[in-house]
Amino acid sequence: MSVLLQHPGYADERLRLVTERLPCREAQARTMLALMGEPEQYSYPSIFIYGHRATGKSYVTQTLLKELELPHVVVSCVECVSAGLLFEQVLMTFFGSSSSASLPRSPSFSDFVRLYRQLCTQLPANQTRYIVLDKAELLRDMDANFLPGFLRLQELVDDNVTVIFLSEIVWDKFRPNTGCFEPLLLHFPNYSKVELQEILAQDCHPSYSPELYSSYINILLGVFYSVCRDLRELRHLAALNFVKFCEPLENGEAKEKDTHKLWRNIEPHLKRAMQTVYLREVSSVQWEQQQQTEERETADMRVLSAHDHVELPFYSKFLLIAAYLASYNPARTDRRFFLKHHGKIKKTNFLKKHEKTSNHLLGPKPFPLDRLLAIFYSVVDSRVAPTASVFSQDKRLLFSGGASISLPVVLSEPVSTQCLGSPTPDPQRTLPYLSALQRAHQVKVNPCEM
Amino acid sequence: MTTTSVSKPSAKVKKRNLNTEDYFTNGSEDCENSKERFRLCQDMLDKMKSETELVQDELNKMILDSLLEFIRKSATSFLSREDDWASHMRASEIPTAALVLGVNVNDHDMTFQSLSDQLQQSVTPFVVSVQAKECTVVRHLLQKVLQRLMGMSVSMDEDEEEGSTDVPQKRVHCSLRALCDWYKTVSKKPSGISPGKKRSSSEMEFPARPPIILIFKDLEAFSPRVLQDLILICSQYTQELPLLFIFGIATSPSTIQRMLSHSVTSLLCIKLFQSSSCTQHLATVIDKLVLTSQFLFKPSGKVLQVLVGLFLYHDFSVCNFIKGFKLSMLEHFHSQPLSVLCCKKEDALARAERLSHQEVERVRQLPSFMRYVEEQEPQEQVELLTNDEHVKEVCQKLLKSLRKYHKNYFPILRCLHELTASLPKYPLGKQIRELHVTCLERKVWETEEYETALQLLRLLAKDELVSVLHKCIEILKPGKTKKIREALRQLQDFTAKFQQLDDSSAVEINAEGGEGDTACGHSLQKKTDLFHLQKTLLQMKESRRTKKRSPFELLRNQAVEYIDSLVRMHLTPPESQPLHEVCYYTSSGTLRRHLNATPRTSIQTALSHPYYYLQNKALRSEAGAISSAAPDICIAYKLHLECGRLINLYDWLEAYTTVVSAAESDSPDPSEKGKVDEVRHARFIRAVSELEFLGFVKSTKQKTDHVARLTWGGC
Q1: What are the b/e assignments for B182-221, b being 16+ CB within 10 Å?
Q2: Interface of B with A in 545-574 (CB under 8 A)
Q3: pTM for this structure?
């Protein structure tokens, strides 16, 4: 086993507990302890911890803070849809539930700092306070002064406080243009295969021996390690397939020692799991059902990625085709493709201009609405009356079709003017239509222009 | 069509009873019986509504049942989560039902409504549905969810809308933390009822921790970012909150994977549910509403084609189909005064007895009645044209026969469809509605397709024919009229005979057939050169043609003949029935104008022929000429039609003033004529900007004093 963590500020008993609960992360834990120092001492103002998904960033931080009983607050930035939520959570944890009441309705960072200073004169910290910001990459999308502000919060509020940032992204991507206080960087490397084995083997099933479970984990890693190193996902898969692994034992066909037999039993099963459960094409509940009922009859289980046939109304089909043509063909070829008597085209000229790169590699292009309709009218065989239903169908097309049937129709920025130019001069129809476009594609359309 | 017709749909929308009736009676031609017609129409609408709801429920039942099952199961799994090793180990996933509903987005609301109703009744009081357009950012989405769940106003940090700031109310942040706290207090109480819900707990028993169900009505329209964030947030609370998602998907289930990254889908435990197709739904609805003698109102072939065309070409929406059907019914009762007779048998007969003189005149003017009169003896003709009482009697008789016609028509139609639906290439159409339309339009037995269908029927193998005949018998069984009974007996006879044939002469036929075959085989083997081969083949062909038919073939022909006679007797088009105008709505043009409007054409009509809408005598003008009395925008529009791609604004203004001043020619000073004064200038500018608003012209950067035309041709 690993060496015990040791630090003068904390009781040995607690540190031993922490060591036990943090397998394979002793080095990181030790560094953090060293940074934190004794509870009363000031710590470094901001620590930035990064590492891949499921490498124990949050777990290590939270375990340390919790087990050592330090004052701390953990805030997930995804959850903080507004800045107020973040501030409120911090203030409430440190200064009691009534503290955030005096926060203004849409607080700025300086409001937060002011209030914090006020409150901490009443309740000064006798131990370092820790603010843990999980998924810190989202801080970048908030107000520009949030990240720099939190980085030097200790200095701003004049209190013994340390901010810990947790992120999957390296610090270089955070650094604002204007410069800021540089935090201490701490990297959590990925677990190695041996470490994964050790960690996974710890949560063994109560009714089986640890050796058996450990050998099971060994087999599991042999199959999955090449595609997935995410601890969380592996744990999930281990739990899902363990029942199947134990089946021969339950039936009395094999003993715990017959590893080869057990391996032969589980291996094809795991391979199948890799193709479906791991990709989440089959949900875990379905997978379990599949295990219970024998495999044969569940072949018709509907898979998520199954490409099924989408039936569309007649005109919708053609609108979709027209949208596809308009987004991938250059506009100058329209004449050639959709007109009966288009005149001669100088072949050499035409070919020379034509770049060798496929239009599909360049992706779909924006196109004006009237071009779409013009192509639509020429693509449909019969005469189509320009009725309201056809126009309103564009809306539905963009709602359900265009946005999702592998056809990213992009409409250009000056949609509003082009829409006016289109042969649909009916503002009552076009206005909701435009708002639908806006919804689907975040096109900036100003209704006032209509 | 006058503008009065425009008000009718709106009359339907407004459910205020008195007003609707007023609308209805206002526009219709005959006041005294319009009230009666209105009542009839409303009765029928109500009946139809309950009928369609029944159909809807039946169709949804299967998918909803399995969905409810899934939700119940995952709800119980929330309770038993803690103790199990496997579930402790497993990453906590949010149970999610992906409901694939098809592209007919208009119909989804109904499905979701009944889904959430059923959920609230049997599983949990906490059901929230959200739409994409309400939630463009996560904050709004969370706010909506919390608002609907907790039934109280949740304040936001930046509150844009409500002026509730002055109310000293405890602020609740719209975070899931708040929801958690709320849920704890609610589920602690045994009643487990939120303040927002009206249901009392005594009615139903919910499990100890009822799940919170979030319904995303239109998954495709949500921004992936919002959805991902929400799922990430929710996944952090799976231990405390039993959350459940339902995704409404319009296209294909792979949308989920396209929208959400793997790390997010791994937080969900998705199960797929597929609803029945909309075409099937339509078939059921048509079956229940159109192909039945229960509803007396009938759309004509053209009307049905318009409705079905709208469905197939435009939206696949059954709701819209039903709306269109209701509209045609409303139109029928509104525009046809004789539709008073379109009601239950006894009522109709009694009403026919009470026909007023005016109404009798109307009956006489019906084309079908006129045709009927022409077929009668001269004596009878005179009687019909002069004696009102006699007409009433005849009317009763004719109404009875019309009713009988319908009672015979639909069973036979179904039989014919059953017989022809399995034939190769579907000569009479795959769906019964196609066959129905053909029968309504013309005499079906005169069509080529019918010929080929019968020929194919004559070639049917015995087991197929017998099974189809059995199906027909099943269809005819509930029939009550004499003719149907008769047909039923005949068909039963036929099947019995086929059965006998099977028992008695099976051996015989086999022997015969075998003989012939072997004889031919022998002769073929002997002669091998080409000439002889040809000759024998010819001989064989000849012999086959003249060969005596087997008893089965004879019987088969008889059966087909009989079916043909049934079709000729009962599937006559309704136009041949006197008084069919009472039940059939034929004006497909009106319907198309209402349901499938052409905004562009109507704008152009309004601009080029203002008389069409304004109905002002002064505006009536011959084609091409520009009337100076027309509204400014019409004049400007007509002038602009004569220009090329770029229009010089000053020239346009000059032309405009010339035309306008022609109207005011009585002005004292001739030099004033054609002069641009300020008022005219302003009027012109307004007209041009109106045209720009309508999308006919736009300003161009090529020349500052020009505008560009945006439409082609026209002059």
Answers
A1: bbeebbeeeebbbeeeeeeeeeeebbebbbbbbbbbbbbb
A2: none
A3: 0.76
